[in-house]
Design goal:
Layout: H1 3-16, E1 21-26, E2 38-42, H2 43-52, E3 55-57, H3 60-85, H4 101-110
Antiparallel strand pairs: 1-2, 1-3
Helix pairs in contact: 1-2
Length: 111
């Protein structure tokens, strides 16, 4: 590919992307790329990867699944973090002392 064509195409693809950060879905590549993995990348990086044939822009369904997974992972992390921070102190109930009958009768007898 001619370098001028590459950068012209890069600018065209980048201009077509409106958001500064976009979600892209990976494609299977000959060098071992795994298909179907959704990532959030910058507009410039997305344009480069699209031209190279490594990714496509994610569909609405893929984006919803991505955000759902992110939310579930965050909740799981927060739950594990809370469990790690949780401190439990076990306090036994105080035993009630029964008044001694002999000490009460002795104090009453001395009066």
């Amino acid at each position: 590919m001619d370098v001028r064509q590459y950068y012209r195409k890069l600018r065209e693809v980048e201009a077509g992307i409106k958001e500064p950060c976009v979600r892209v879905t990976s494609l299977e590549t000959s060098d071992g790329g795994k298909p179907g993995i959704v990532s959030e990348v910058s507009r410039e990086q997305a344009a480069k990867l699209i031209i190279e044939g490594r990714v496509t822009l994610s569909t609405d369904g893929e984006e919803k699944a991505f955000f759902g997974k992110q939310t579930a992972d965050k909740k799981a992390f927060e739950k594990a973090d809370m469990a790690r921070r949780l401190q439990v102190t076990i306090v036994s109930a105080p035993e009630e002392k029964e008044p001694k009958a002999s000490s009460n009768s002795e104090s009453g007898a001395k009066k």
